[in-house]
Every structure is written in C-alpha cells, then in structure tokens.
C-alpha cells in the first residue's frame, strides 16, 4: 500500500507552491532548469530573458563564477558552524564588508535568512531597544498601507496588502498604518520621484496625537515600495518621516530588501535619497539570491543600548540556527566582490536613463494607465478587466513568458527589475516584447480564448491537457 501512495518524482501534486496559482500552474507548468547571465532556460529548451532578477534578487545576473566557486569551496572547507556562542571568520568579514558599503551611520549587522526574518528581527530589536533604555511603554509599530514586509506575523501586521493580511486572523495588536503614497490622479507617468505626496508623511503626527509618542516604538517603510507595484517616494516624503520620527523619539526602519544592492543606481536607497534611518533590513541581493540570507543593519546607538549587564549574559534573546551560515557568508562575500569588481551599482545608474525612456515608450499601449520608474525598476499599471482584478496583468505575464520574457505582476501592475548587468539590447528586447504582448490584445481575434472571454490569440505550445499533473521535463 505504501508503495502505491508513493508519487512519481516528477509528479507536480505534492509541492504546494508559494504565492502561486497552484491549479493553473500544474495544468501548464513553467519550469526553469538552468540560468546564465540574463537568461533562464526552460524545461522545454527555450531561453527566457530575466526581467525580474529572479524575484528582485539576482542583481549580478545568473551563474556568476565567483559566487559559484565560493559556495563550492566553502562547503568543502566549513559547512556549518553553530550560530549561538560560536563564530567563524567569514561572518565577521562579511559584516565588515557590508558596513563598508552601508549608508552613513550603520555600524552593526545582525544576520537572518530572509527578508521576512529581517523584518521580524528589526521590529523586535526596536521594541527591546526602548525597553533597554527604560521606555518599555514604546511597543506600538507603525507600518504603511500597501507596504510589503514579508509574510511572518510581524511583517504582515505592519504590512498593508490586504490579501496578505485578511486570511490570517487578528495579527499583532498595537499596530497602526500611515496612508500609502499612490496618487495616480496627480502623479501618473512620473519619471523618478513624484512631485506630490510629501505631506502624507505628516499623518504620523496624527498617529502620535492619537496614541501618544511614548507608546510608539518604530515606523517601518520601504523607501521604494516594490511588491505593491512599484511606488516611488514622493519628493520630500522620506525626509519628513525622518524629521517627525526623530522629533518624537521613534525609530525609523527602512526595509531595503528590494532597494538594497544597487537597484536604484546607488548601493542602498538610504544613500540614494540621503535619509538616514536607524535600522535597515536586507536580504535578496545580499547573496545574489543564490543562498537564503538576510541581515539587519543598525546604528551604534541601537546596538550599544543592549551592551549592558554582566558580560556573560546574552544581550539580545533572538537569532536563528542559520544566522551567518558559512556558505551564505561565502556567497555574500563573493556577491559583494562581484558588485564591486564590475561596478554594478554605478552601472545601474548609468543605464537607468535608457531604461526610463524605454519603459515610458509603452505609454500609448492599450490598457496602460500609469508608468513609473527609478534606477533599474519600473512599474506598468494596467486598467483592470471589469470584475476580474489581477487577471489582465496575469495574462500579460503568461503571454510574455510564451514570448521568452519573465516579468512579475502584482495586482494589475507589471513590475520590472532586471539584473544590473542588463545591456541596451536586452532592454530593447524586453520592452519590444511587452509592446507585442499589449498590441496582441488590441487586435481583433478570430476565436476567443475560453479562459478569459477577452480577445486573445489562440496559441499552441503553452497549454497542456488540463488533467496533467506531471512535469514534462
Ligand atoms: C520590502 C520587502 N521586505 C520583505 C520581503 C520578504 O522577503 P522574503 O521573501 O525573503 O522573506 C520582501 C520580499 O519581496 C520585500 O520586498
């Protein structure tokens, strides 16, 4: 009997895929089997241009020799060292290298394994920091509508994306939210930072008046909100948040899981915008997405408040089995070296104007209602299909994949964030393909695709028989 239950290795049913339309996927699987530079190879042997650096993480592109070699060498030398009460040299070396490129004021590094864990860590440090300084009443956390801070309970509590919150109960108590900064009526088709919306930061004064500053531990925001669909900070907004948090003794946390490591054309968003937070959360580009790793950067003021009491006592009761894992540290060091050697942060800044012109050339495409960009990021907002939110963008994602391009969608927004090694020819290909995807939907079609009831070219190739649950690789 047990043998009967054993699925074939290529059966698709057992793996419950994250943030995926599982049933749709398993009817028409999209599998990557290799990657190099700017491209993925699919299971059916096609090349797909990576318009999203994987999931905003492979900033140096794929299969980078230095990183591959560092991981192999580290695994052969020291595979694991206990993270608590023990150390290994590369954890210290990477921390120092990170501080070397970190924004002004950042002096310490706490390792995690993901962006979600970095967020939980930063929120916990914020609350514990006030307590360590005798302000134990400061426990309230302030996030922002449409914010994305990962998927753990702290992160979804301060986060502001409704589908990530509404299924999961009461979440953390003592959390409030600033308004989001998306003002399409005023800022549509802005290049770079929008003109309007700095005053939205003043809402923090309202929350202070409502709750009392002495109850608020921290404000956490993404300096550029990525996962909600690419929202740039309005001019002056982050500066105002900094002013108000400082005035009321509230810590300011920048979640730079996406904006870290060159995405905006500078090492970090804090550097890019010239605003100094108290903590920065990182992950993704830290190891080029190759090995799970995250980190929280803190100022000396945050760190030093914990360094009290007897020497033999643990100062912060927090950490993970894999905090500072040797192979992750080796990957991190090789990644930072690759960024440095190839000047990738500067490169992103240099090619950004070409990227900007290319994305805004799609302005006249059907259903495009907004385009926004900065560094090597762009968001293309589509008019939702009436009564079927998210479907238009999802269809564009599928069509783009058919045409050899990987994009990411969130709601009805296409989000683009290619590896920083992207060349002009790739940019032309990327936006040429997206134009085709949009134009295809304008053409009158003979025969409608039964999936959506919209004009849509029928194509062979992608669709598998709906009852298949086997990977065809
Ligand atoms: C700003 C931000 N914070 C946190 C996270 C969560 O990171 P992870 O998926 O590694 O937990 C993400 C992921 O996209 C993110 O964009």
What topology emerges from the helices and strands here?
Blueprint: H1 2-5, H2 22-27, E1 32-36, E2 39-42, E3 47-50, H3 53-56, H4 65-77, H5 89-101, E4 106-112, H6 115-132, E5 140-144, H7 153-158, H8 162-165, E6 175-178, H9 184-187, H10 203-211, E7 216-221, H11 237-247, E8 251-255, H12 269-273, E9 279-282, E10 294-299, H13 300-304, H14 326-342, H15 344-360, E11 368-374, E12 377-382, H16 391-402, E13 405-406, E14 408-410, E15 413-416, H17 424-442
Parallel strand pairs: 3-13, 5-6, 5-7, 7-8, 8-9
Antiparallel strand pairs: 1-2, 2-3, 4-10, 9-10, 11-12, 12-15, 14-15
This protein binds pyridoxal-5'-phosphate.
Structure, described:
With 473 residues, the chain is of the alpha/beta class. The chain folds into 2 domains: 21-50 and 343-442, Aspartate Aminotransferase, domain 1 (Alpha-Beta Complex); 66-342, Type I PLP-dependent aspartate aminotransferase-like (Major domain) (Aspartate Aminotransferase, domain 2, 3-Layer(aba) Sandwich), CATH 3.40.640.10. 35% of the residues lie in helices and 15% in strands. The chain has 17 helices and 15 strands. It has helices at 2-5, 22-27, 53-56, 65-77, 89-101, 115-132, 153-158, 162-165, 184-187, 203-211, 237-247, 269-273, 300-304, 326-342, 344-360, 391-402, 424-442; strands at 32-36, 39-42, 47-50, 106-112, 140-144, 175-178, 216-221, 251-255, 279-282, 294-299, 368-374, 377-382, 405-406, 408-410, 413-416. A 7-stranded mixed beta sheet has the order 4-10-9-8-7-5-6, sandwiched between helices. 45% of the residues are buried. Mean pLDDT is 93; it is low at 444-473. It binds pyridoxal-5'-phosphate (PLP). Pyridoxal-5'-phosphate (PLP) is lined by residues 114-116, 119, 148-150, 222, 226-227, 255, 257-258, 283.
């Amino acid at each position: 009997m047990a043998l009967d239950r054993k699925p074939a290795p290529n059966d698709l049913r057992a793996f419950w895929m994250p943030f995926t339309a599982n049933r749709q996927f398993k009817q028409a699987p999209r599998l990557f089997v290799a990657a190099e530079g700017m491209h993925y190879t699919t299971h059916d042997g096609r090349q797909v241009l990576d318009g999203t650096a994987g999931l905003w993480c492979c900033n140096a592109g794929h299969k980078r020799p230095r990183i591959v070699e560092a991981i192999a060498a580290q695994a052969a030398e020291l595979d694991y060292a206990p993270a608590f009460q023990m150390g290994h040299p590369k954890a210290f070396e990477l921390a120092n290298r990170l501080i070397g490129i970190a924004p002004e004021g950042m002096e310490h590094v706490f390792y995690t394994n993901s962006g979600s864990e970095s967020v939980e860590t930063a929120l916990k440090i914020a609350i514990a920091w006030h307590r360590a300084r005798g302000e134990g009443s400061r426990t309230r956390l302030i996030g922002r509508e449409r914010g994305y801070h990962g998927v753990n309970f702290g992160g979804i509590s301060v986060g502001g994306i409704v589908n990530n919150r509404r299924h999961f109960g009461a979440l953390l108590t003592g959390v409030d939210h600033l308004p989001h900064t998306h003002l399409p009526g005023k800022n549509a088709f802005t290049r770079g930072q929008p003109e309007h919306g700095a005053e939205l930061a003043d809402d923090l004064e309202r929350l202070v008046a409502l709750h009392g500053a002495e109850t608020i531990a921290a404000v956490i925001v993404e300096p550029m909100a990525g996962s909600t669909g690419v929202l740039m900070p309005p001019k002056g907004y982050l500066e105002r948040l900094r002013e108000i948090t400082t005035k009321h003794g509230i810590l300011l946390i920048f979640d730079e899981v996406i904006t870290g490591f060159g995405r905006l054309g500078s090492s970090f968003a804090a550097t890019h915008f010239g605003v100094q937070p108290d903590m920065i959360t990182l992950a993704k580009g830290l190891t080029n997405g190759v090995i799970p790793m995250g980190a929280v950067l803190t100022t000396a003021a945050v760190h030093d408040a914990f360094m009290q009491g007897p020497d033999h006592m643990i100062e912060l009761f927090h950490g993970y089995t894999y905090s500072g894992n040797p192979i992750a540290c080796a990957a991190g060091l090789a990644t930072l070296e690759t960024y440095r050697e190839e000047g990738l942060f500067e490169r992103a800044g240099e090619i950004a104007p070409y990227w900007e012109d290319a994305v805004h050339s799609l302005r006249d495409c059907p259903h495009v209602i907004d385009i926004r960009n900065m560094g090597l990021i762009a968001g293309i907002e589509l008019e939702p299909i009436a009564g079927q939110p998210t479907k238009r963008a999802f269809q564009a994602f599928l069509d783009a994949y058919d045409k050899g391009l990987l994009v990411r969608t969130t709601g009805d927004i296409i989000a683009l964030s290619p590896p920083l090694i992207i060349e002009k020819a790739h940019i032309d290909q990327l936006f040429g393909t997206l134009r085709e995807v949009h134009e295809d939907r304008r053409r009158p079609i003979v025969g409608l695709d039964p999936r959506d009831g919209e004009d849509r070219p029928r194509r062979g190739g992608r669709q598998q028989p709906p009852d298949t649950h086997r990977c065809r690789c």
